[in-house]
Structure formats: C-alpha cells, structure tokens
Request: fold
Amino acid sequence: MPDSIRPTDSDSEEELTHLPPEYRAAVRRLRAQVNRAATALNRLRAENERLRHRIQELEQRPALQPDTTALVLDEDPETLRDRISTFIDAIDTYLENGTVPPEVSSATDASA
Reply:
C-alpha cells in the first residue's frame, strides 16, 4: 500500500469512530490482513521482476548444441569395449554357474 494512502495508527482510530464498537476490531483485523496481503504482493512482484531479468540473461547464453560430445573417455574405445565385453561375459558366467571366472576377478581388481 503506498505511504500516501496508508493510514497512521491515530488516523485509523479516528476513522473508525463512526463504526459501532463491536465492528472496530473486525475492521482492524481486516486492515491488517490487507496490509499483509499488499506486502506479500509487493514482495512477489519484486521476485517476478528479478526472475524476469534472470530469464533474459539465461536466454542470451548460447545453448549446448545437441551434437556436442558430453562424455569424454580416458581410454582407447577399443580397450574400453574389450573391458566391457569381459564384464558382460563374467555376468553371463555368474548367472549360469554362480561363480566368477578368475580372469575377470583380476580385471576388476586392476580397474579399481
């Protein structure tokens, strides 16, 4: 609520003298609720403005191109493919026999 129309405490008491006493407390409560709502509204407007500026900033940044590589491998692809195949074979063997072949055990130890 703008300060130019916000009543002061003394103004609000004088303003309510025309009301029956039983209504004055209710009017005071309603005014307090309106003031809280106005404060919340002003806070939300300020936040919306801040977010609007943030969106504009983000929209000006270049977007990540879909063909850009998002994963970088430290190993040679063929070496990685061989290691993955070894793990797949070990899983298959484990599912069939319940044991892990010794060559896979040493491969997993070396990768750790």
Q: What stands out?
A: The CA atoms of residues 93 and 100 lie 7 Å apart. The mean pLDDT is 81.
